[in-house]
Amino acid sequence: MEWPTYLDEYEKLLIRMSTPRVMIDNAGCSNVTRLTIDSARKHGFLLEAVQVLTDLNLSIKKAYICSDGRWFMDGEMRFGINLQRFLFFVLIVYLKSDVSISVNNFAVFHVTDMNGNKLTDESDLGCIEQSLETVHYGRSKCIEGLTALELTGTDRVGLLSEVFAVLSNLRCNVVDAKMWTHNGRIASLIYLKDDDSGFPIEDSQKLSLMECMLRNVLKGDNDIRSAKTSVSLAVTHTERRLHQMMFADRDYERLPIIQTCDDHPVVSVQNYLEKDYSVVNVQCKDRNKLLFDIICTLTDMQYVIFHATVDTAGDRASLEFFIRHMDGTPISSEAEKERVILCLAAAIERRASQGVRLELCAEDRKCLLAEVTRTFRENGLNVTRAEISTTMGIARNVFYVTDAIGNPADEKIINSVREKIGLSNLKVQELPLKHHQKREREDSTGGAMLLSLGSMVRRNLYNLGLIKSYS
Question: Quick one: residue 44, left, alpha or beta (phi over 0 = left, psi -120 to 50 = alpha)?
Answer without folding.
Answer: left
